[in-house]
Amino acid sequence: MREVFFMIFSIFTVLAALGVVVSRHAIFSAFSLVLAFFGLAILYLLWGTSFVSMLQILIYTGAIVVLFVFVVMLLDLKKEETLDSAKTGPLVMAGLSVWFFSLLILRALNRATYFKSTNVEAASDIKSISTLLFSKYLWGFEILSVFLLALIVSACVLARAEYMERKADQ
Amino acid sequence: MIPASVQILHWSHYVAACLFALGMFGFLIRKNAIVVLMCIELMLNAVNLILVEVSMRSGHPEGLIFVIFIITVAAAEAAVGLGIILNLYRAKGTVNIDAFRELQG
Prior knowledge:
CATH topology of the largest domain in chain A: Four Helix Bundle (Hemerythrin (Met), subunit A)
CATH class of the largest domain in chain A: Mainly Alpha
Number of domains of chain A: 2
Radius of gyration of chain A: 21 Å
Number of domains of chain B: 1
Helix content of chain B: over 70%
Largest sheet of chain A: none
Shape of chain A: extended
Radius of gyration of chain B: 18 Å
Order of helices and strands of chain B: HHH
Oligomer: heterodimer
Structural class of chain B: mainly alpha
Strand content of chain A: under 5%
Number of strands of chain A: 0
Order of helices and strands of chain A: HHHHHHHH
Number of helices of chain A: 8
Number of strands of chain B: 0
Distance between the termini of chain B: 57 Å
Largest sheet of chain B: none
Number of helices of chain B: 3
Shape of chain B: elongated
CATH architecture of the largest domain in chain A: Up-down Bundle
């Protein structure tokens, strides 16, 4: 059963990601992005990390994609861009770099000596995650919270309508 | 939670490699700046999937911590990036990345 779910949702996720790349209009890319994020959330559930899966749905599909959809609908994108401006040079570079990257990952992950541990239940436990987050990674957590505060201010300043005119006046 | 006999989940780094490849292709061939940002999000998600796999296979929850950090930074990047794109659209009337060439003269 788990195998069938994994096959279905991995193919679903990859197809949705393909939809993000090849969709003609940005709004279809955004909807394909929602599907890809849901597929990834289900893959996280299959791994047993229900907390990360919940975060994925709440933050990615609940906040980030909504932001994308808002901006796509805010802008007047009548002039549809086409895909025929693709050059072969970037494609070859992308293919090579992705190939090297995949080789690195497969080389690293196929060493079974990394994965002798059997306490996978402890790893996905929310208690162990939060203990680690508030002890060893406390400084990263606090710096990230200050970073988010700075982000709120900077995003508000950037997205105001008067920003460009005020820059033009100066 | 995961029985050791289930080996098919260990294929998820292939899925992550596919997602990263698709995100990089989209990043390089698309001309719409919003879609370019979406492709960056796809690449970040591929990295998240690899981190979850490594964390669950090795039994250390550190990977999940970094997934949480990456999700937070991705939300920040999307918010600021879309704000910049909004201002570029106000300045140029388009989001085609070929129109933004001031810095290279």
